[in-house]
Amino acid sequence: MGRAPCCEKVGLKRGRWTAEEDAILLNYIKANGEGHWRSLPKNAGLLRCGKSCRLRWVNYLRTDLRRGNISTEEENVIIKLHASLGNRWSLIASHLPGRTDNEIKNYWNSHLSRKIDTFRRPSIDEALPMAMNLVKVSPPKRKGRTSRWAMKKNKNLLGPKKNPNKETSANFDMVSSPATQPVERERLSTTKASSGDRETKERESLAIVNVASVPYSVGEGGTTSPLSSNNLSNPLMLSPSGGREDGTILEPLEGIDEELSLSFNDIVDYAPLLDSSGIMDVSIETSGDHEEAAAVGSGLERKSEGGEWFSCVEDDCVNWDWENHVVQGHGHDQTAEERDGQQMLAWLWETDGGEWGSQSFEEVDREKQNAMVAWLLS
DNA sequence: AAGCGTCTCAACCGCAGCGTC
DNA sequence: AGACGCTGCGGTTGAGACGCT
After folding, report:
1. Strand partners, A319
2. H/E segment holding residue A188
3. How far apart are CA A256 and CA A179, in angstroms?
4. In the structure, how many helices (H) and strands (E) does chain A have?
5. Distance separating alpha carbons of residues A43 and A258, to the nearest angstrom
6. Cβ neighbours, 10 Å, residue A246
7. pLDDT tens digit string along A62-101?
8. Which of A48, A209, A296, A358 holds its CA 20 to 30 A away from the CA of A130?
9. CA of A107 to C1' of B8 (A)
10. How far apart are CA A372 and CA A378, in angstroms?
11. Is the CB of A113 less than 7 A from some atom of nucleic acid strand B?
């Protein structure tokens, strides 16, 4: 038997709030304080459910809300925090005074996710022939209106924006495709934990992956989780021992007590997110999506320290050179954007040594992170 | 001007955590 | 211990705006 609904829906108003309702709610909360949402509508004389009142207050009526567009600085913070926290919008919002989780979530889904998404291969169905395919060279023709970003871009080229304060992603050279949103949804949805208490989930999801050591250190094998057909589909399978049956050691991650899978996409997703100590902070959850994982892994090779190529799976179509950081695709003329993206990623992953010329590791990483964010925001 | 597809964002929905009894 | 209620969170939806054809 399911739970009773949070409120009796019959006879309650839904949809957009009117100014009158806003005033009633505002006045009530001013007089009585927030909380007791369940009883609030009745006491205030509103024909709304308590949840709706709470949402309206939290997202719109609260006096400490910051109005206006998300600034570049805020966008920067959102990108960085999302890398660490995943879709924990309320947590991210807590770092941005005056911004609500809903606002950030919407902003992410409509602006930032697509920017980040261009770091991924363009489609799950393509077996990674171009993992770093930053743009679709020949987007499918669509009927009707072009995507909004493109229109804005056009607008930028042709004249001033209607609202010059409005921040847009218009200058980002990418192609929006109908496939993007479902892919993004799928990706986002994986961050939702399925079980366990919150503390455990925090631990599980905030595994720290040392990028420099992940792909290519080869060791004795260690106590390995068997590379079953299932986890074969995860190109990089991390276990507490860090071992793989093929002899590739993925450095053990302290504090991780459960097997975690890290797909190529995960790395690509979070490549921009190296922190100052050369650590990539990612949100990882064991993926049950074999379809995606299989597609991801269907053509991934890695290079060992000795220079040999490892095949993650049988059907290789892409060579990912972890040392030289070059993605080798088949028969594809790169666009300038692709090259830029590759160069950016290559640069990001070059973190092996303790020093980089005269710069320390930390300085380089900080610079990388800032550059990546700047690039994303550009 | 109408038709259409896309985008944005406020609001809704369902679930999970937590406190209370 | 477990049933129950409240609250908060994250994913999803849909109305309206927008602008291209």
Report:
1. A301, A328
2. helix A180-189
3. 34
4. 15, 10
5. 49
6. 14
7. 888 877 788 888 888 888 888 888 888 888 888 888 888 8
8. A209
9. 9
10. 10
11. no
What whole-number distance in Å separates Cα of residue A51 and Cα of residue A28? 15
Identify the pLDDT of residue A40: 87
**pLDDT (0 to 100) of residue A92:** 87
Query: Rounded distance, CA A376 to CA A122, Å?
Result: 17
Q: How far apart are CA A277 and CA A293, in angstroms?
A: 29
Question: Nearest nucleotide (C1') to the CA of residue A198?
Answer: B17
Nucleotide showing the shortest C1' distance to residue A170 CA: B7
Please, which pLDDT band fits residue A365 given cuts at 50, 70 and 90?
A: low
A347 beta carbon < 7 A from strand B?
A: no
pLDDT above 60 (res A58) = yes
* Mean of the per-residue pLDDT values of chain A: 51
Å separating the CA of residue A294 from the C1' of nucleotide B7: 32
Side-chain-side CA neighbours of A233 within 13 Å: the count stands at 13
**Which sign, positive or negative, has the C-alpha torsion A5, A9, A13, A15?**
positive
Measured between its terminal Cα atoms, the distance across chain A in Å is 52
Closest residue to B6 (CA, C1′): A147
